[in-house]
Amino acid sequence: MKLERGQKLLFIGDSITDCDRNKQDGEGLFGALGRGYVAQVDALLQAVYPELGIRVVNMGTSGNTVRDLKARWQEDVTDKKPDVLSIMIGTNDVWRQYDTPFITDWHVYIEEYEQTLRELVAQAKPVARSGIVLMTPFFLESNEQDAMRRTMDEYGAVVRRIADETGCLFVDTQAAFNKVLAHLYSATLAWDRVHPTAAGHMVLARAFLQAMDFDWTK
Amino acid sequence: MKLERGQKLLFIGDSITDCDRNKQDGEGLFGALGRGYVAQVDALLQAVYPELGIRVVNMGTSGNTVRDLKARWQEDVTDKKPDVLSIMIGTNDVWRQYDTPFITDWHVYIEEYEQTLRELVAQAKPVARSGIVLMTPFFLESNEQDAMRRTMDEYGAVVRRIADETGCLFVDTQAAFNKVLAHLYSATLAWDRVHPTAAGHMVLARAFLQAMDFDWTK
Amino acid sequence: MKLERGQKLLFIGDSITDCDRNKQDGEGLFGALGRGYVAQVDALLQAVYPELGIRVVNMGTSGNTVRDLKARWQEDVTDKKPDVLSIMIGTNDVWRQYDTPFITDWHVYIEEYEQTLRELVAQAKPVARSGIVLMTPFFLESNEQDAMRRTMDEYGAVVRRIADETGCLFVDTQAAFNKVLAHLYSATLAWDRVHPTAAGHMVLARAFLQAMDFDWTK
Amino acid sequence: MKLERGQKLLFIGDSITDCDRNKQDGEGLFGALGRGYVAQVDALLQAVYPELGIRVVNMGTSGNTVRDLKARWQEDVTDKKPDVLSIMIGTNDVWRQYDTPFITDWHVYIEEYEQTLRELVAQAKPVARSGIVLMTPFFLESNEQDAMRRTMDEYGAVVRRIADETGCLFVDTQAAFNKVLAHLYSATLAWDRVHPTAAGHMVLARAFLQAMDFDWTK
Amino acid sequence: MKLERGQKLLFIGDSITDCDRNKQDGEGLFGALGRGYVAQVDALLQAVYPELGIRVVNMGTSGNTVRDLKARWQEDVTDKKPDVLSIMIGTNDVWRQYDTPFITDWHVYIEEYEQTLRELVAQAKPVARSGIVLMTPFFLESNEQDAMRRTMDEYGAVVRRIADETGCLFVDTQAAFNKVLAHLYSATLAWDRVHPTAAGHMVLARAFLQAMDFDWTK
Amino acid sequence: MKLERGQKLLFIGDSITDCDRNKQDGEGLFGALGRGYVAQVDALLQAVYPELGIRVVNMGTSGNTVRDLKARWQEDVTDKKPDVLSIMIGTNDVWRQYDTPFITDWHVYIEEYEQTLRELVAQAKPVARSGIVLMTPFFLESNEQDAMRRTMDEYGAVVRRIADETGCLFVDTQAAFNKVLAHLYSATLAWDRVHPTAAGHMVLARAFLQAMDFDWTK
Amino acid sequence: MKLERGQKLLFIGDSITDCDRNKQDGEGLFGALGRGYVAQVDALLQAVYPELGIRVVNMGTSGNTVRDLKARWQEDVTDKKPDVLSIMIGTNDVWRQYDTPFITDWHVYIEEYEQTLRELVAQAKPVARSGIVLMTPFFLESNEQDAMRRTMDEYGAVVRRIADETGCLFVDTQAAFNKVLAHLYSATLAWDRVHPTAAGHMVLARAFLQAMDFDWTK
Amino acid sequence: MKLERGQKLLFIGDSITDCDRNKQDGEGLFGALGRGYVAQVDALLQAVYPELGIRVVNMGTSGNTVRDLKARWQEDVTDKKPDVLSIMIGTNDVWRQYDTPFITDWHVYIEEYEQTLRELVAQAKPVARSGIVLMTPFFLESNEQDAMRRTMDEYGAVVRRIADETGCLFVDTQAAFNKVLAHLYSATLAWDRVHPTAAGHMVLARAFLQAMDFDWTK
Questions:
Q1: CA F73 to mean position of chain CA atoms
Q2: What are φ and ψ of residue E208, in 5° steps?
Q3: What CA–CA distance (Å, rounded) separates C100 from C111?
Q4: CA proximity to F189, closest of A157, G100, H115, B30
Q5: Interchain proximity G102–E28, CB inside 8 Å
Q6: Are residues G48 and G215 in contact, defined by beta-carbon separation less than 8 angstroms?
Q7: Chain E residues touching D145 at Cβ < 8 A
Q8: Would you call F103 and H6 a contact, using CB atoms and an 8 Å cutoff?
Q9: Which residues, given as ranges, of chain G have pLDDT below 70?
Q10: D43 touching C, CB under 8 A?
């Protein structure tokens, strides 16, 4: 995918995307993009490619699963007519199965996850002309045998499959984190293994931008 | 200068460095490094060079002039034994001459600025074995004839001269901003032309890291 | 225009007019008029012309453009039946083009500005029997070649043209500020070059009152 | 007394002077001068005489009597070396006799008031080279037979006598208010007949400035 | 009027009656009756006549004029079926004429006051079987020639006339305060001459209870 | 004991006396006397005997036992030179034995209670020339066999004995409450059977004032 | 009744059950179950029987009487389809008769209590397949002759009767507390004899779990 | 160890022990023991063994390592003369090595940990006559190969060794948690794998009490 002058780049997802963004507009000054990877991507694009005038919009909402995205897809994605759409969802779909295992109404199992994500991609395709980026959910746990990490990897595999089949740009965030986890214990990047520190968010921002052929030295 | 395993990298300066840092330690988790360029440098180092284990410390304090740095130099710099020391000071030294012109006690004129900064560099030299980085103060105003911009440029020239004469690494932040200001009006980067947005801080972080031979694609 | 006993004087505009006013009524005791030029005009009128019993109403709303004024014109202006109406709008219409250049939906370009302002004046004419005052927007930047200052001047020229053509009283706020900017750097009057200090507001209050033939020594 | 380039003008008094000023410095940006007559005097001086660069300092402290001024005279007045000093004190000296009549320790009777004020003026004389302004305390009650008004008038007479005998500039604030009270009921200017609205403060600011030969139309 | 076992005693009025009462019910524990004369009446009745089980309800609302009472009369008075109803209104009807003289929409002049109060009494008569108490508004100013005191006295005269003509119990609160004002300056009882201290409220509570033949020594 | 012109009446005790009083002075306007029986006594004295000018001071402190009173007796009682001193202490001395039975360090048993209270009375005698009032502690429990009520009654008996032997005026608060408890269940007067409602405080205020020959109908 | 794998256990009641629970869902992490006996039951079940995966839901609401439960029974109980339902209600039904005796609208007398509770049990029977637990209300007063304790015991007898007749599991909370009250004065367990400390809540949790054949040593 | 009448039981440790306890005393009503396992132990002891009157004191402090305990051992442990002392420390000693690996000053390595803990036990021995309980630190991670879990286990082994050698009662909290982790994923018990939910705290409370031969069915 190519960064082009005047593109509108919309990110949607859960609390990792949200990260305390301005809830009304999802864009503007004064930290309106939150403090996470979306804000970092915007900062890097403005700092390195000021001439492109890329417009970044953050539509993340804390606690969301793919089921919640579906409920607000029309208003928060299609109506906003992004040129590029980036989706990172699944953390809560999986997490609720592990942190509140008895409250099954809150779980989004893998079949519903896959089917819903496919629907959302299909609906966004005609709008996001410059392309869709699918980022995997991740879990900051280096033990691949860990139960929740294993489930998260399965959801990540679903994302990869949908990306492959629908021609979306695929970003493997788990792989990006794994390189760092080889050197740093997970607690350095996130106390709860889910919500990253600024460093963790930078791993996400860099993975996204590298997929977009962003050139730091330009 | 070369990034090396286990280095302790200490930043000192005013509100631009401070940026809501943890006041007790200036390091640690939970946003202890603030939200500005120091936090971004740390995030980029951890994300790209996790194997180096660089320790970043933020000793910026809002409202400081070089006169204030002098008063806390022993405790906040020398005693902390940084391997690399980065200094960016001068904004308030100049600004007070323009925003509260009648309160002359608050002004730090260029002679005092130069002499004090020289002293501080001299005292830090024996401690910061890996080197000292001198970053210029800046003003987010593209009109070079603007009175405050002109004064700020003069202070920047002092910084360059000291860097040259003492063998410090020089970072011309005004030059880095000028490239962006060629495309974006200054209000996009800072409402008050002083305190940058996240994008403005990224310009600083990138300028610093480029001087350190940081490699994004590594 | 002549100050007359029992007049109702209504000010409408953006955050410069609003300045933390009481949002329900826009008048009353306990700082209901805010802390800006409207409150100062009221204070000066009560202090110097207590026998006239001028009633001042503040209908400014932060962030407003002329497009927002249009949406609340009936309720906030016509229904309130002012004898004298003062309008100062345009700051945000211009500013958004410079501080959030990529969010074009927020920009109000000069054609829409002129047409809307004309409409609003036309609608208010039959109500405000004692007259309408048109105050230009301003930018506290002394460099006339500055891009945003230049645009603001163009909007100011629109205001002057409408005033001339419709017989409104014209107040050139930029000109009033320029006299002060000849002696004081803009940061003394406003850190962000837009929201004035008490001194900056007094420049506005004085410009307004001089146009109304207010006599300080009376 | 004549306004001259570069003068430092220090105001001292009680809550009417204080009016929510910055407690550390009593000067600077961001409403550091409070919201009362001191801030208005500063605003008018900067707006009308920007070329003079008058430096205004507010050393008022809520609840103070002349006894409290004595305790901080060295630190808050003499050490600050003002060119012009303005004193308005006495409200609480009188008020406590009327609102908490049984707590006699809080009352400052007229003999102590006169003697203390004389001492303070004597001590300030050598410092405030350009002159001292003595403003009377006042009570926003139009009935001259009212007990508290009568007492306040007696304290005002003391101020006048000291001004006459020591060559200070005398400002009769009660007289200035009386002109307004002829048209407006006292509740319009102050609910408690002591703490003025913005309009009431403007009466004070204007009385002060007229004594200083301030020219609004300049 | 006689205190009888099981009576429901409802007080309605403005901020003097309200005095920070529980807004939903106007009765209950934990200060639900506010901190003014209504709470004191309840405390005195419970302490001295616990065997009567009088139920006290506070329906006062800050800022109310008789016009506001009319708007909520059905819901807050008639529907609540009090045995005894006590009305004290008029303070704001008069005060607004003196503290915001130019905002004439807020004034309730004497004709409207009298007519509305008559209507309300007429509507309450069939409900409040044990009787209605009419308390005058008051002004804590001992000078009878004071403009606002004079107007307040006229409104008090209206209350007396209505009480006489409709057989309501009349409580002259101004007369009760006058006895105290003979010894204490008004500021001791209320800084703004309207909102009483606890002592001032006790004057009201005592005046009310004396009219009810309350016996302290019982 | 006789109320006399100009007396200073000081109350000391625990949270029942304190009741959110102003901690610095214990007197003044704006609820400085708290919201309990002390404030009610003051309100009744001012309302009924304004000509006497009785000065009421509240030195109650929440959580205090007689041991705590001893520690601050010099500063808070003797140094303040009251004419009349009223002491009500013992609630916490007893309560801690029942609510935190294992934390024995917090208990003040009856021997220490008696001895300390005697000492304090002896020290205050020469100061409080008009007399000392000793009020019993109380427990709002009507069952005399209740363990805590029984203990409280024993402490009350100590108070009576000391009053008899030292010629202090004795106020039996438990007896005063018992009359009300005959009609009202204790929860109506205090949820925790200790901290009274306004009605409960009025029982205390009335018991105190009746001992002082206060005449409500005067 | 037997604890079984995957059961949903719903508690309903008043403030003792509520205890600061999450109001939206009544379940989840981060203290969503409040801090009372419901949270303790959940903690004990998870700690000792983690393999059962019992899902605990807290639907208590502060201030509720049985009349309030009726109004929300459909939404908060039946619709939620619990396997086991536990009801503890009646505290406020009784308490209001004693703490606000004059506000009779707030009282729920024993006939209404019995009839309503029967209705609710009948409606819940077909839903709560594994059974219903009826817990008595209680009063932390050891004197059985105390008026409120006696009434509470009568309401408890109603609960026992309904449990017997409808085959619900009966938990006599008053009996459980009585064993503790034999050793500890009631104030140790609850200052107001109603809202228990953590220890008091543990008495409730243990009484409930013992009825469920919970085995601590398992 | 045997629970005996009147024992004073003091817990010391880090945030897991602290859990929002009252910082001054560490005991008393109103949640003074915090909300963690200490409060649960106290609740269970009071509910089941009210006749013993065990006094529980919480001296935990958030963020503490064994190094911090040493600094306050005299004041917070020895001076308080507990009969039984329970120590659980080590979480932060280990955690800092993993979450802030570069800030080595914050790490307490195993040699220092062992030596300091030994010293503290030795100092406490003569005071805590009824015995000392040593609880291991724990990590809520079921993967024994996880780096931080492995380190925590090593510290736990140190605790066991010291307990064995000094005759302290040993509580293996990790083992207690492991039984639960066999059924529940760690996120159910603690989002950050360190700070337990109420259920996790109950695992600790139960492990402690079982070591004390606590009998739930008594």
A1: 15
A2: -65, -50
A3: 20
A4: G100
A5: no
A6: yes
A7: 143
A8: no
A9: none
A10: yes
Asked whether the beta carbons of residue D103 and residue F55 sit closer than 8 angstroms, the reply is: yes
Say yes or no for a CB contact (<8 Å) between E180 and F217: no
Q: Is D31 on the interface with B (CB under 8 A)?
A: no
Domain ranges of chain C: 8-211
pTM above 0.90, yes or no: yes
Residues of D with CB below 8 A from B105's CB? none
Any A CB within 8 A of C63 CB: no
**ipTM surpassing 0.90:** yes
**Eight-state DSSP code of residue F29:** S
Confidence (pLDDT) at G2: 85
Catalytic residues of G: 15, 192, 195
Closest in F40, F199, F217 to E42, CB measured: F199
Residue from E25, E164, E192, E215 carrying the catalytic annotation: E192
Closest CA to A79 of A31, A19, A133, A10: A10
Chains in contact with G, where contact means 3 or more Cβ–Cβ distances below 8 Å, are A, E, F, H
Contact C190, C196 (CB under 8 A): yes
C192 classed as catalytic: yes
For residue H72, give the H/E element and its range: helix H66-76
Q: Is A36 helix (H, G, I), strand (E, B) or coil?
A: coil
Bridge partners, G170 (sequence order)? G134
Share of chain B above pLDDT 90, in %: 96
Out of B6, B28, B54, name the one closest to residue H100 (CB).
Answer: B28
Q: Cβ separation of D101 and E192 shorter than 8 Å? A: no
pLDDT tens for each residue of H41-62? 999 999 999 999 999 999 999 9
pLDDT in tens, chain D (218 residues): 789 999 999 999 999 999 999 988 999 998 999 999 999 999 999 999 999 999 999 999 999 999 999 999 999 999 999 999 999 999 999 999 999 999 999 999 999 999 999 999 999 999 999 999 999 999 999 999 999 999 999 999 999 999 999 999 999 999 999 999 999 999 999 989 999 999 999 999 999 999 999 999 98
* Backbone φ/ψ region at H56: left (φ over 0), alpha (ψ -120 to 50), beta: beta
- Render the burial of H72-103: b for 16+ CB within 10 Å, e for the rest: ebeebbbebebbbbbbbbbbbbbbbbbbbbbb
CATH of domain A8-211: 3.40.50.1110
Q: Tell me the nearest-neighbour CA distance from G75 into chain F, angstroms.
A: 32
pLDDT digits (tens, 9 = 90+) for G32-76: 999 999 999 999 999 999 999 999 999 999 999 999 999 999 999
Q: Which of C25, C99, C164, C192 is catalytic?
A: C192
Q: Could you tell me if residue B161 is left (phi over 0), alpha (psi between -120 and 50 degrees) or otherwise beta?
A: alpha
pLDDT band at E36 (very low <50, low <70, confident <90, very high): very high
Name chain H contacts of F102, Cβ cutoff 8 Å. Answer: 6, 53-55
Residue given tokens 């609102």 in the structure block: D99
d(CA D14, CA D204): 14
Helix (H) or strand (E) holding H170: strand H169-171
CA A167 to CA B180: how far, in whole Å?
Answer: 34
**Does the beta carbon of F71 lie under 8 angstroms from any beta carbon of chain H?**
no
Residue of E3, E22, E27, E46 to mutate, interface with G, max G Cβ within 10 Å = E27
Three-state DSSP state, C214: coil
Residues of chain H with pLDDT under 50: none
Residue type, F169: L
The tens digit of pLDDT for each residue in F21-37 reads 998 899 999 899 999 99
Strands D169-171 and D131-135, by their bridges, are: parallel
User: Could you please report the per-residue DSSP string of H34-79?
Assistant: -SSHHHHHHHHHHHH-GGG--EEEE---TT--HHHHHHHHHHHTGG
Of the candidates E72, E95, E103, E84, the one whose C-alpha atom is nearest the C-alpha of residue E9 is E84
Chain D residue nearest residue F46, CA to CA: D102
Active-site residue flag, H213: no
